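Pair request: fold both.
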Amino acid sequence: MAGAKSRFRVCPACPGPVGNVRCVPTSPSPATEPAPARVAPNRRADLIVVLAATALAIWVTSGMWWGPNTRAITVNSSDQALFEWLLAFGGHTVTHGENPFYTYLLNVPDGVNLAVNTSITVYAVVFAPLTYLIGPPATFLTILTLNLVATAVAWYWLLSRHLVGSRLAAGVGALFIGYCPAMVSHANAHLNWTAGWLVPLLLWGVFRLRRPGRAVRGGIVLGLLVALAFSIAAEGLFFTALAVALFLVLWALHPSHRAEVRAALPSFFGGLGVTALVAGVLLAYPLWLHFAGPQRFHGTGFDPLIHSEDIAAYGSYPRRSLAGWAGLRTSLAPNPTEENSFFGIPLLLLGAVCFGLLWWRAERAFRATLTALGGTAVVFAVLSWGPRARWNGRRTHQILPFGVLDNLPVINAALPSRLALVVAPVIGLLLAYTVDQLRARPPRHRATSAAWVLGFAVALVPLLPTPLLTSVREPIPRFITSGHWQQYVSPGGVLTPLPLTVDVTPDGQRWQAYALAHRQGEFHIPAGFFLGPGGPGGRGRIGPVPRTFDSLMDQAGRTGLAPIITEGSIRESLADLHHWRVEIVILADRVHGAKYDIDEEAVRRTATALLGEPQRVDDVWLWKVPPP
């Protein structure tokens, strides 16, 4: 059995440069000491980790399991409505043979380019039968829960099978990464970012390209993984590619790896070529839509100054954690779904101590790996601070590297705060490697062992997640659920709720998702919650550029004051409705406002002033739009 330091030896047959305790070189050489024997399977440990991951996922999402169709995530109900719509639309594309990357159901008459939006195409298609069976809200909750479980389990698989020898070490690292503050924060309705299980699979696919003679097979597998990741979480794929590229460059530049790098380069680049070919063929059409199709845009409508990480956030605690429940939370994130760091000072200190222990015990080759891991974490942490530094809510005038990179294509579409998501896996790897080392070479004194246990507890226990906040969602009107709307809208015709459907009033997409999932037929709506062109400088914006009619409705619903209506505003409003080809306008008794309460009475008075007295049909007020 080799010494503990040989756990960090790098073997050319291993899938990655971060070590593999299971590799067994056929012939030892001065550059590669004999590795430890193959680790015996431990199904009980595997089962415990899977059960722990499942229990935590159900705990985090427990507020919605009481009533998937009647409850919604409080702080991000608009994104939940969007993803539910995407799931319903995905099923509709399967059964009706429609384009999954572009739709005219929203934003009449221009449509929406879903390739430049977070379209979760694979999820929508794969889970289409479930969506038709139990409805979009319950399918959304199922995918969200499975995402959390799969992320922890995938990281456990990568750690336990390829990186460390201790199942305990793999479990600690995997459960931290799977339920770190960023993952729990994005569990507030982000089906794309909670699909963190893609990252360890991508890492495995990249590192196995080093194997001689596996360029074609490895490239095909990685190409399929890239296409899968693009279709679920394109921004996450981009961040993963940047992080892996930086890590490999830092690792390869170390003098101890030069010979190994030269030997692996032909196979590695050959595999990357096959990867690019496979992924390029599969993604040719969505990539064309993304960069050259209609309704495209460059960059996003989100301000990078706002959506950047506060430096102090790294030492703070998140809202949905045990520490946050105890009152130690802060409001340094732009919103509750973007707490992308929030590790707390104890964990930062523990990470530094772990790095020091590993560096002290490791041989030269693994120190290069530690340097690459640390360098990657530092670079992405600094980039996450955005164009200008901010400390504890106060913006400084110090220009940071992201301020220079923000004008580059593709990068200008990324939110800098999300770059902090790369730091959590690095910390998880350090925790796993440290536990592995402590089990291989336990401290000589019990007091030292107790200090390590106490350090892990003080750092990790405050970060234990608490359930997401949920609330009762507004019911879908009987006018929609009964299919009565079909008597007032021609096949494929347009209706609009009041206020119009946007991110802050997402009811229209919920109604449309219900109709699609229950095979009632299609009705189209103007506006919608999506990213499209129209922002400053050619950037994107949420929803279409406002027109007179929707601006008046938004003003009434938001302020509770009916605006003054003139002949000119009536004429312009009718022109807007005709532009959208709207046949009926409807107002529910209760309208959901994602950011503020909607005054339904003010909206009804405004619509009546513009369109005349409404009809009462089922449980909605209905106005028929006169022909042009």
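--- second member of the pair ---
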Amino acid sequence: MTETAYTTLHGVGESARRPDAALKVTGEFSYASDLWLDGMVWGVTLRSPHPSAWIRSIDVGPALKIAGVLTVLTHEDVPGAKFYGLEHKDQPVLAIDQVRYQGEPVALVAADHPETARRAAAAIVVEYELREAITDPRKSQNFVRHQPVRRGDTFEAEVVVTGEYEVGMQDQAFLGPESGLAVPAEDGGVDLYIATQWLHVDRDQLAPCLGLPQDKVRLTLSGVGGAFGAREDLSMQAHACMLALRLNRPVKIVYGREESFFGHVHRHPAWMRYEHGATRDGRLVYVKADILLDGGAYCSSSPAVVGNAASLGAGPYEVPNVRVDATGVYTNNPPCGAMRGFGAVQACYAYESQMDRLAEACGLSPVEIRVRNAVSQGSRLITGQLIDSPAPLADMLRDLEAMPLPSGSSEDLRSMPGGVSQTTHGESVRRGVGYGVGIKNICFSEGFDDFSTARVRAELVGGEPHVTVHTAAAEVGQGLVTLQAQIARTELGIADVRVAAADTTVGSAGSSSASRQSYVTGGAVKAACEAVRERFNGLPAREALEKFGPIEETREYRHRPTYPMDPLTGQGDSHTQLALCVHRAVVDVDVELGLVKVVELAAVQDVGRILNPQALEGQIHGGSAQGLGLALMEEIQIRDGLLLNPSFTDYLIPTILDMPPMTMKILENPDPAAPYGLRGAGEPPTLSSTPAIAAAVRAATGLRLTRVPIRPEDIALFDKGIDKGVSDGKLA
């Protein structure tokens, strides 16, 4: 396809306009929370106020006496299996005899008005017998998974640096709360319109709980207001369906913001101890690491998160000797699961902090220490897996270092830390520069049967060629609907393309996570289009469709196989594809007030092949913003198992005033194993931005700062000349 054709067709390589763009800008786009059906009623969930307790009794009588209340359900009313889960079916649909975290669902109410339903839920009387909650993961003996990685036997070196690091619990903080509409069907089944990331796995978990065959549980994707991993697990899906089937009426459930914090998984907080050994000139000899991840009350996707943290635990560096142990444990804290970066984020913060310490100990610059140890094509990960596609990390670092630095501080108060609120005039502001490197696996790993299905139909509509693309891939804001149409236009040469609503009437597309949809669903659409084009028999599209009539083909696309990590050594080809991103952060820090202003973020990322330049830029900006949030402000506060800040008043996320200008360089080194040579791009910026910002704050303050997010008191409240962070990690 020529560049002229791309421009005409808005195909692969062009910044094709998103079909939902204007609707979202004008407020006309329908999100799942906007769903409405005549005769529908409202569902509400009663949740446990305690992180750990026995349930001694539940009295629903007071709720049923309230006018407008239609039904109240408990675990006794679950029509089928009482447990579900992504990897292990350990989570009850409704609490049975105990609660294991604050916010666990205990009962359901349906009423003719949402306020009535909320009042009724509050009227339910639950007798709890409190018990001691396990909230410190370092004291938990209940393992989700332990994954070691062992390589080599030399653990002595001329230069040794050690450190202990902590990553707080981050929330995905999507703007659209959990919501959905369940509609009972005449065949005894249910139709669920839902904001989710994985339609078929939702269905596979729901059907047994509802006591229905899979073909009677039909899901259609509704407008999704962001996801970032939190919609991989079930939230209100089973609850809405139970109420709808019980009442034989449509039931809508919409969480408020506070309930949303209780109703989905979060990023695993982590405690990590690292030891790096190197030669005097900075060549890595060994890495030791202990990584502890708090999985909370239920399994969710913690086993996969542990696997990622272990396999990527030393970063994109040549390390001949490795002893890594990654462990996930159960506690009575809120469940943790998928979030952008998925285990690799936590490890990246620690190993990048270590690389800065090693640079200091060896008398090298932060860039030089990384260049000397950078992987490249032909290198092996610590799991022994060969990097068999381009990985030009050293060049990326040199490109980043060569980018011009921003000018000095402006007189404009808005450019200073705290300047917008008139807290400073720059009296105690210092500037710092820091670097971060991240490596992320793309697609699902460790032998998971990872595939996507696409159905493509070409036909004449009004005498003109028209294409319909149908997949179950969840559009969660990343631009996947746009990309599917671009691929169809490119492969078939037909401009008029419609992407049908994602639902379970077509084969699974897997989850919109792991930066995988462009790869696997893009591959499936491409394959289905190629099959349709083959049936054109070399004729132009219009002529072929006039001669043969509508042509429809369905194809599954699978990437190359992966394999489980060895349970004792961690060795194995566990990943499909790897992606690299490097960041440089420039920050201004008011060292008296403890306030930080990120002045600039610069990034270099290799994406294999650019499919949509504007969408790609948005992914890098968005991932960098979430990394900034983790570095400086975002943290769910948990005390004794209780969530203290379930609101956007108290859980802080970056705004337009916090996000700096970004300079980017995008490299295209195609991966020969991937469709179009693409490389998943959504997650890597989230990894490297956090340690880069933390490093820049350290450079400005001289403090060790071994925990993110960095709080103002970590910077401001210290004795002159004494580093409060030294106890968390020292140069050997």
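Observation on the second member. Residues 1-7, 719-732 have pLDDT under 50 and may be disordered.
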